[in-house]
Amino acid sequence: MTQPPDVPPPGGWPAPSGWTPTPAASPAKPQPGTPATPPSGGPGLNLPPGWGQAPAAAARPGVIPLRPLGVDDFFTGVFSTFRRHWRPIAVIAFLVTSVMALLALPAVLSGSGLARELIDVALLDPESSTPEAEEAFRQLLDELVAFLPWLLYVSFLSLMAITFIDAGVGWVVSRAVLGKPTGAREVLRQLAHRAAGLVALGLLVSAGVTLGYALCLLPGVVLALMLFAAPTALIVEQGSPVSAFKRSLQVSSRSFWRVIGILLLIQLVYGLAMQVFSVPFTILSGAGTFGSFVTGESSSASVTAVVLGYLGLWVVAVLCSPFVSVAKSLLYIDLRMRQENLAPSLEEASRR
Q: Is residue 144 part of a domain?
């Protein structure tokens, strides 16, 4: 039985605009004297369940059919979304990663000292145990300790970048499944409107995942995977950071192994793409490091390695992170269609 429009979907979270379930029509009562409809297969032939007329094909107003998705539907929807809506997705990925890269620039500059010490240690004779070698290792350890706060800072910025990209792409996908285009300006307005909530959500997710890692490595990884839908739920369902946090846990826990399997498959594809796009920067960085072995100088090589490595990470993030965000948004919608029968509401919304 479906719910009336003013009742939220299962779980207590409000449905996004245009996705409110519609009331089901009451079955028509047969009039007196009207003969009953004969069973499928013709008069006098009762076919077993599932052998009747084939079900009608699912509606497809946008990038996916409005029914629970198979693996082929899933990845077809990812590439279809990129093909039809690549402009707003590219704009969001470029702007968010660029802002986060600028904010992380002080940490990058601080990392040049660590890179210099790493190159100094690499230039040492492996069989050497001179005081100079011991001093090089001590300085490397000092640089590692000094860089640790910057490392935590960069990790948090990376999480915030993922949160904002997931939310922006999630808005694009929520419109794409209805067959409705979305401009970059509209997505930016949505992100600006929910910016405080997204920052709070990033802090909440960071605290939860850090606690999981502190308890044991595996709970931290599992919790990070189960919170994949939190940014999308926040911007699509227009709830609070806490409700989005709970919402992601709710839909993930009901289909735990499906979520884990698909997310690991997504990360595998992402890792392969990341390796391909980072090859040129790895070669250039390696060439600079090799030059330091030839000349015996590490100062210029450390700067080159840091700059090229940082540029490579930025390019990879711009090109590859939207793929993961689109896939996670489609997985979130697929879970809602499976668990909450969202497909009829989406079909109705696509006609408006």
A: yes
Q: How far apart are CA 334 and CA 70, in angstroms?
A: 9
Q: Tell me: the pLDDT tens digits for 99-148? A: 988 888 787 777 666 666 665 655 555 555 667 666 666 776 777 777 78
- What is the C-alpha to C-alpha distance for residues 329 and 290, in angstroms, rounded to an integer? 43
Nearest to 162 by CA among 253, 267, 87, 67: 267
State how many domains the chain has: 1
DSSP 130: S
Q: What is the mean pLDDT of residues 282-303?
A: 52
- Interhelix angle 131-176/184-193, rounded to 10 degrees, is 110
Give the span between the Cα atoms of 2 and 326, in whole angstroms. Answer: 28
pLDDT tens track for 302-322: 556 666 666 777 887 888 889
Which residue range forms the structural domain that includes residue 260? 71-350
Cβ(235)–Cβ(194) below 8 Å: yes
**Residue at 155 is within a domain:** yes
